[in-house]
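Dear V.,

Thank you for sending over the compound details. I've combined the ligand you provided, zinc ion, with the protein sequence from our construct and run the structure prediction for the complex. I'm sharing the raw inputs here so there's no ambiguity about protonation or stereochemistry in the SMILES, which I know was a concern on your side last time.
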Amino acid sequence: MNSNPRLLKETDRRPVAGDLDDLYREVILDHNRSPRNFGRLATANKTAQGYNPLCGDRITVFIDLEGDVIRDISFQGAGCAISKAAASLMTANLKGKTVAQVRALFGEFRQMITAGESNPQVLGKLAAFAGVHKFPARVKCAVLPWHAVMAALEDKNEPVSTEPL
Ligand SMILES: [Zn+2]
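Below is the predicted structure of the protein with zinc ion bound, written out as structure tokens.
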């Protein structure tokens, strides 16, 4: 038995074990109750809004981008627990990351919540959202803040929607 996640190799993708669900739920509830990096960022030079019409979630992200690196990031908005916790954990994770790293993380995150396979070494606490794949209606709540970040980095002025307009 090898239950230490730190010993997993990158190739050891596996469905998330059921006994981890409670721990993950705690992480999500905690970030919903006390969201990190919540509020407008005065030093932001990139911003974008995301909207998920299926659930009503609205998230605005503020990014202080220096060269290719996210120096600081925050978010504002209203939505369900999943979207708020996803934005909170995402902002905590993205500080200090390069644009290329953000893109790669978003790819991993999206694969995790659509396919239900996680890579704890890459995703860290973001793995808390692995269980979301069992609730397809909530997948868009969890990816919404990421769409907003990508839109901000690509200087899109129109709000991005998780649904085709
Ligand atoms: Zn939602």
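A first observation: The longest helix spans residues 136-153.

Warm regards,
I. M.
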